[in-house]
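User: Please predict the structure of the protein below. I'd like the answer in structure-token form so I can feed it into my own downstream comparison script.

Assistant: Understood. Taking the following sequence of 382 residues as input:
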Amino acid sequence: MRAMTYRGPYKVRVEEKPDPRIEHPNDAIVRVERAAICGSDLHLFHGMLPDTRIGHTFGHEFIGRVEEVGPSVRNISVGDRVMVPFNIFCGTCFFCARGLFSNCHNVNANATAVGGIYGYSHTAGGFDGGQAELVRVPFADVGPAVIPEGLHDEDALLLTDAFATGYFGAQLGDISEGDVVVVFGAGPIGLAAARSAWLMGAGRVIVVDHLPFRLEKAQQFAFAETVDFREHKDVVVALKKLTDGLGADVVIDAVGAEADGHLVQHVTSAKLKLQGGSPIALNWAIDSVRKGGRVSVMGAYGPMFSAVKFGDAMNKGVTIRTNQAPVKRQWPRLIAHIQAGRISPRDMITHRIPLEHIAEGYHMVSAKLDGLIKAVILPPTS
């Protein structure tokens, strides 16, 4: 099969790899019809996560058609078109039984830190991802779901991570009616969080970024007020002025390690694998939320220390909630919202790129070229 492979920091290419095979009775093999590049894939692409091995195939957002199932699979069948959550989970462990699918304890030798994730290095289990023609899907009776009739393929694709994660980020903010919600980051997850905040009763939604095309998208897609942090000497002061000097009730960090940090942080993350990335957006979130407010962290951080202002959060009585999103748990509610016409996740998509051109796609996403918000990958069979 044709598949994207990692060749080192800033180097990916498409090459032939052996077709995946059934390795466990509860596996399935899925032929990918749509995949995507996620902002968090850039941490792998930039060489910022430990144990990202040469030849690994990225991609944790994908949908496709079931080509083969193991002998114990009962809930999906050959020929079914399925949406596959980015989390790999067993469905029966202590954490899965509590709906914490992203924290499954049975799918990853490093499960004390992170559960299993498709295409996200051996730190997350070493499972090859969906930027390929075929994918092995473990625990196929638990993770994948048949795409409901009438649900657009690209809406289904964005529920496998980006939109569902943004929705979960808004949920973690415990938004009450009339709350002022600030979202740092106008990438797909930030846009989804901002749009979702309205569904949960927000009275104002303010999105902070510095790229004009992303701020424009936040206005159009998420109906948000926008702040360009480059236009302010201190963006925290600017946000305080917009919120009667108090700060926002809820702040969502949808930036994480994408934020620009100082040289030492970038050197230690990319070269020495000692940093989780720059904490600038998270520190802004802590400083711009009101006393007793809530901070939701959806930005992707690595496993190591990132110089967060935890003392300030404690002194302000801030509640910080975070996790990788258990996206399948969000699907019934999100599908209902889509069917009712309240949201259209696919409206975030700006580019569709053939798999064979994925190296160019990664460059465009990394450099934020051509107004790119969300890129969908099209395998040769799609």
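That's the full token string. Confidence is low (pLDDT under 50) at residues 259-277.
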